[in-house]
Design goal:
By secondary structure, this protein is an alpha/beta fold. The chain is 34% helix and 24% strand. The protein contains 23 helices and 31 strands. The radius of gyration is 29 Å and the shape is globular. 48% of the residues are buried.
């Protein structure tokens, strides 16, 4: 299928061929009929992508601060590699379209094949021939609304939410500042609400268009005088700012033209350095509108399909989308008047070049073939790894960790042939194949599991799919490297154990700490310990926002997802898995735990995994007490071994947490007949102990 992508590092925009995403998991597969280029929003993304690294840094100072902290904790080179890997990941463009359901997913809103629906969402309703769309980001298109008009659904919902936040009443005088797509629709929505409307835009042609859209007055200069005349000198009841500007001029000018106790609503992206005086003297109400409406930026609503009860949240983003299309069906809003250009998807690059020129434009539509192209979920990538052979490696899941850590470790381990990479989106799969050298890009795991030329599989998907995919890969006769955790429930773990016990392939899990050079040196220092040891592992994990997928059903929680690393490290040092586990968490804090482990030889270990600390402190600190010996491992940067009153210190310029060593051991087992990197009984025991700590059943 054809899809538009934007490289955030190089700034290059292009049309590519990508595999088609899958329906399911609350998503329907939609064949796009028309998608709308949001000239304002997408132009900002493109301009930022084309800017220098310094320009990108100035635009996101919050990310710069996080990056500098990573440099301090992990070293310069690993941090730079991760940052560049993130920047090199292409992003999809588009977030508003109309199309037809071609595959109905389970629990995906009750749509059936052939239904016409309008779809919204960045990274969801993309400029692509096919999109997998969650149910809460789609609505049925009313009879009488054509695909072109329906493709405005997202822009319309944004405009409608801005009007709702303004809370206008019949007969009020409202000013709309900025008459781009959202501003023009805002004018019509206000008129439908019984308001008197003055539109303002420095572009005279857009002011004239606002008059055609129903504005009572529209000006391109002299705004202050126009508002005085329009309101009888009182000032506007409400000002809705739909302009886009780096300047803070629009909100401050909005304050100057407002009446006493008026409302200023920010819809567009502008500077927000507010002059206090006019807001204070008029006791103005400054409000920010949240894009399409309630539900925006809430993964539980948008991606997992959990709706808000109508009695408590009358207007969600989906209900705003539906209300907008109903107004279009009634003829009270006429978005087709805003269309200036139409391009077939094959000419998408030309459509974006239009925005770089001087020719006037407003709404630009991309149109798609009447007969959708065939659905292909695995495609070859020309010129990459064309050779065939009996053995090769495929990836299922290729996020930042797989890209920046696992694959470099794989390439360091040897000249391995890369067969197929599978991701949830065709865009990321195509990029991984093209950039990293996979022969095929796919969106269906069966492209790897059913491939006779793939005998090693890396599973780096979200946590809830690890166990299922590991079982399927083992049953298919593959060697399997699955990222931690191995499972999220004891039942899943039992299924993996049964499959691994019966399968010919090697199974390993990404418990890399035991392969770190400093951890190996600590183990060697305990070679003659002559008795049990006491260990304490402190992990300053830092805060992760509550809406992160790690806390939800996909992640299984941070304890199940990450504490397994530290259980395995203590298992490695003690020489065997724990035989007893007890754990406690502070009241009301689900991602902090203190766990005590007892081992068969009498050794003990404690793990303090905390989300409560200051993230500026290094993440990991391990202390080991043996007869006459104390070992301290400080975040894999320094190792101190103290015995006989003397301390030996080893330092490293960059962290090495053992990822490369683990991958090398995996290939030694699969290619050279060496033992499995971690014995199966330890993999299972560590995973079971971690689930006990997490309280999983």
């Amino acid at each position: 299928m054809k899809q538009v992508e934007q490289n955030y590092r190089s700034g290059v925009l292009r049309l590519i061929d990508a595999p088609v995403p899958r329906a399911g998991g609350g998503r329907n597969l939609v064949a796009t009929r028309v998608s709308l280029i949001s000239a304002g929003t997408e132009k900002q993304i493109i301009d930022l992508a084309r800017s220098s690294l310094a320009g990108k840094a100035m635009a996101r100072p919050d990310l710069v601060r996080k990056t500098l902290q990573k440099v301090r904790n992990e070293g310069l080179l690993p941090t730079v590699q991760k940052v560049f890997a993130k920047l090199d990941t292409p992003i999809p463009l588009g977030y508003s379209l109309a199309g037809t359901v071609v595959e109905a997913g389970g629990d995906a809103g009750g749509y059936t094949v052939g239904d016409r629906i309008a779809c919204a969402g960045a990274a969801v309703a993309n400029h692509a021939e096919y999109n997998a769309v969650p149910k809460n980001l789609s609505v049925r298109i009313p009879a009488g609304v054509n695909d072109e008009a329906a493709s405005f659904v997202t822009i319309g919902a944004i405009a409608l939410q801005g009007v709702r936040v303004a809370n206008p009443t019949l007969g009020e005088r409202v000013v709309v500042m900025g008459l781009g797509l959202i501003g023009q629709l805002t004018v019509q929505l206000l008129k439908a609400n019984g308001c008197r409307v003055l539109g303002f835009d420095p572009n005279r042609a857009r002011a004239d268009l606002a008059l055609e859209m129903g504005a009572d007055v529209a000006v391109s200069d002299g705004l202050d005088d126009a508002v005085r005349g329009f309101t009888g000198g009182y000032g506007a009841d409400a000002v809705i700012v739909t302009a886009s500007s780096k300047s803070s001029g629009p909100p401050n000018q909005a304050a100057e033209i407002s009446r006493m106790k008026g409302r200023v609503v920010m819809v567009g992206l502008t500077g927000m350095e507010i002059d206090r005086e006019p807001f204070y003297k008029r006791e103005l109400d400054l409000r920010l509108s949240m894009s399409y409406g309630p539900g925006r930026h809430d993964p539980a609503y948008e991606l997992e399909g959990r709706d808000y009860p109508l009695a408590y949240v009358r207007w969600t983003e989906q209900r705003n989308m539906q209300a907008f299309l109903e107004l279009v069906a009634e003829g009270r809003v006429t978005p087709l008047k805003l269309v200036t250009h139409r391009y077939p998807i094959e000419q998408a690059e030309a459509a974006y070049k239009l925005m770089d020129g001087d020719a006037p434009y407003l709404a630009i539509l991309l149109t798609y073939p009447d007969t959708p192209t065939p659905i292909e979920r695995s495609i070859p990538v020309a010129g990459k790894n064309a050779t065939s052979g009996a053995r090769g490696t495929g990836f299922i899941g290729f996020g930042n960790y797989a890209k920046s850590v696992l694959l470099p470790a794989l390439k360091k381990a040897g000249n391995e042939r890369l067969t197929t990479v599978v991701t949830s989106t065709g865009l990321s799969a195509h990029d991984a194949a093209e950039r990293q050298g996979f022969a095929h890009a796919a969106t269906d795991p069966q492209a790897v599991l059913g491939d006779a030329e793939t005998d090693c599989v890396f599973i780096a998907t979200r946590h809830d799919s690890h166990a299922r995919l590991a079982v399927e890969a083992l049953n298919a006769g593959k060697h399997v490297f699955v990222e931690k955790p191995l499972a999220l429930t004891q039942a899943q773990l039992a299924e993996v154990q049964a499959a691994a016990s019966a399968a010919p392939g090697v199974l390993t899990v990404g418990f890399n700490r035991r392969f770190a050079p400093m951890m190996i040196a600590a183990k060697q220092a305990l070679a003659n310990r002559g008795g049990p040891i006491a260990m304490h592992y402190r992990i300053n994990a830092g805060h992760v926002p509550g809406d992160s997928w790690l806390h939800g059903s996909e992640g299984g929680g941070r304890i199940a997802g990450e504490a397994c690393h530290f259980v395995d490290a203590l298992t490695f040092l003690a020489g065997g898995p724990p035989v007893a586990v007890e754990a406690f968490s502070p009241e009301g804090v689900h991602d902090t735990v203190s766990a005590v482990l007892r081992f068969a030889d009498g050794s003990t270990g404690t793990i303090l995994y905390s989300s409560l600390g200051d993230s500026s402190l290094p993440k990991e600190y391990l202390e080991i007490f043996a007869a006459g010996t104390v070992i301290r491992l400080d975040d894999f940067r320094k190792l101190h071994i103290t015995r006989g009153g003397k301390t030996m210190t080893k330092s490293a310029s960059a962290q090495d947490k053992g990822q490369a060593g683990l991958v090398k051991a995996f290939y030694a087992a699969t290619r050279d007949g060496a033992p499995a990197p971690i014995p199966l009984d330890e993999l299972i025991a560590v995973s079971a102990a971690t689930l006990d700590i997490a309280g999983a059943e």
